[in-house]
Amino acid sequence: MGQYATRFPINVIVDMLGLDRADHGRFHVWYTSMIDFLGNLSQDPEIAAAGLRTRDELAAYMIPIIQDRRAHPGDDLLSVLCTAEIDGTRMSDEDIKAFVSLLLAAGGETTDKAIAGLFRNLLAHPEQLAAVREDRTLIPAAFAETLRFTPPVHMIFRQPCEDVEVSGGTIPAGATVTCLIGAANRDESRYADPDTFNIFRADLTTGSAFSAAADHLAFALGRHFCVGALLAKTEVEVGVNDLLDAFPTMAFAGGEVPAESGVFTRGPGSLRVRLTRRA
Ligand code: HEM
């Protein structure tokens, strides 16, 4: 995970923004510190201090680049953000810097956990791994089933505008509800044999799995549906193809299926894989 899954999505975001590729390593450090900060539920003071340092370092790095990109826009996402205008309103330098942080957090940890989860699930089912290796058009199905079976984001929060009846109870208007995506994705009234990972299942539609019409909930639903769903699909397709091409055999290094951890976001804490390089 440290050598591949946590790096690839961040490198993609840095490149899309048109930032210096020599700074991939720097962004990896900032990204790790941001994720540690967001997950610092026990309020470890060192993690908190490192997160605040990262906020200042990222601002000192981004603001001059944003100002320069406003003056000299190029063919990159950062230039689009700098020049976009809706009803006469543009984003401030601070807004754009904050959006870059959001992209790193929302597009990094999720995709990182998705790539690790997909390999964990396939390595735990070698016959399904062999099928995907043989027929790469199965990668989207393997990704969709991974999103259903082991969604990287487990919780989202909502506040109903009006009273809502659910399962015989009433959620009052204005209450904060913690929706558990992982539980919804294993609803036995929706999916046959929901606790089984099966990329060939007939009750999960791969064609719509990366759009707002998805029948799993890993990208949430409605107006905050993940804006990066199609980017995640592309990254996973490229990443999985590359790794399968590079390594003709793969197996868990310890023999055991690595455990998942995390409550808000969830995935394998580490994924040690014994790889054989192509001769
Ligand atoms: C497998 C990978 C991914 C998963 C599982 C995932 C999951 C989610 C979920 C559950 C939400 C909704 C949060 C809510 O409603 O409270 C969300 C929103 C969002 N995602 Fe993703 N995401 C993934 C990849 C990405 C990527 C690659 C990007 C961009 C680089 C991205 C950017 C965003 C943004 C900006 C939002 C906020 C959208 C809004 O509030 O309108 N995500 N994502």
TrEMBL record:
Belongs to the cytochrome P450 family. GO terms for molecular function: heme binding; iron ion binding; monooxygenase activity; oxidoreductase activity, acting on paired donors, with incorporation or reduction of molecular oxygen. This is Cytochrome P450. SUPFAM superfamilies: Cytochrome P450. Pfam families: p450. The lineage of its organism: Bacteria, Bacillati, Actinomycetota, Actinomycetes, Kitasatosporales. InterPro entries: Cyt_P450, Cyt_P450_B, Cyt_P450_sf.
